[in-house]
Amino acid sequence: MKNGKPLWIRVSLLIILLSISAIISLILFPTKLDFTMEQSRLFHIIYKIRLPELLIAITAGACLGLAGSIMQIILDNPLASPFTLGISSASAFGAALSICLESNIGFNFLNPEISAFLFSVLSIVLLLIITSLAGLNKRSIILVGLALNFFFNATNTILQYFSTPDAVYQITFWTTGSLTVATIKDSIILFSILVCSLFVSLLFSKDLGIIQQGERNAVMHGVNVNFERILFLLVCSLLASTTVSIVGIIGFIGLITPHIAKLLNLKSPKYLLISSTIIGAFLLVISDMVSKTILHPTILPISAITSLFGIPLLIFLLFIKKVR
User: Where, by residue number, does the polypeptide cross the bilayer (predicted)?
Assistant: First the structure.
């Protein structure tokens, strides 16, 4: 209990920090709300524009943060992220294919969101098939994920090469990520997936802790490493593919959040999963505020902001760890 109490205090502080940032985002960004304005107009601004964006920022950031922590645990790799599996490039190809078909031949097979989701699911299916044949180990998963990532990036480039300028613009806009087109219904979908995924992850958190200590040790303790690795790959793919299909590709959130949690000494799987989820939501809310205000009234691509924040933050964390 003595060790657990301070950790829960840190998690509680993270929740408070997220709540404060959410309220500030709702009231002040991109401009301060005028509560003396007409009630119907104020209602429209809050509930039709700002609240949906805030909710999708919280849920999408939380999903990416949770997926990132799971990936780094099961692959025992600090550079692992939800997109290590090739999900981002596969979903980008799916969206690009849908946009190109409609633009070039007027054939609307699927809308970009559904097509992106289906191709991201296809990437994880291909990964599981190939790794089951080559050996379901950490190295195989990373190598196959990288191969799929390069493959779908190449096919996406070829699609854009033969596309119309308007289609290329739409593809670029989609792949840079955006929270402005999301709805409260999308947030509910992401929240439902987040709760189920977090529940499953916490249910197996003890096993994850044993796996962290080495596969041989996990086998000796009776943990079915291959089964749990497949399970969590599916959980990560569900979190990442659904998030990407709704808000586009948002990088660095899943990579950086587990490192921040570890810096706060929240290293055990249970605390790492919970804190990474909260930190992911917090980072995306802050990034959303910056994207709306840094060149107001222009809204910058959210993925550009997360990358600009993520790169120096990652370097800073590396120096902090070296000093320690």
Answer: 12-33, 54-75, 114-134, 141-162, 188-209, 230-256, 298-320
